[in-house]
Design brief:
The protein has six helices and three strands; from the N terminus they run αααβααββα. The protein is mainly α and 123 residues long. It starts with 9 loop residues before the first helix and ends with a helix.
Length: 123
């Protein structure tokens, strides 16, 4: 039943529509093709649940590196699977790898995440 006191316009149901504070826009210029390819590659690497788990464990260490051997037990994933996902994250530029004896150690590439944050920042 229609109530004359209720507004049915979209603008009246969405607070702030048409006002600057509620409007979303990418801060800066639209991406060119090379930048879009690079950023899509970062998102593609993160678009896997296992890789997100791996990244969260490495990122939780801050600036400290994480040994691949430690991730095996923490994530309850086999060594070949961990290695595969770490390799994908390194290839995407999200992690760096340093060989120390038998094991590789991984660190977050902060600049890559800063670029993702900048892209995702809607003001």
């Amino acid at each position: 039943m229609y109530d004359a006191g209720m507004s049915t316009s979209v603008e009246s149901r969405r607070p702030g529509v048409g006002t600057a504070p509620e409007c979303c826009a990418i801060d800066g210029e639209p991406l060119d093709a090379p930048d879009a390819e690079r950023i899509a590659g970062l998102f593609k690497a993160l678009a896997d649940p296992t890789r997100l788990r791996v990244m969260s464990h490495v990122a939780a260490q801050g600036c400290d590196s994480v040994c691949a051997c430690d991730l095996i037990d923490v994530l309850d994933i086999s060594q070949p699977t961990i290695s595969h996902h770490l390799k994908k994250l390194v290839e995407a530029g999200l992690l760096t790898r340093e060989q120390r004896g038998r094991w590789a150690h991984y660190t977050v590439v902060r600049e890559a995440f800063a670029e993702l944050c900048t892209f995702l920042s809607l003001d």
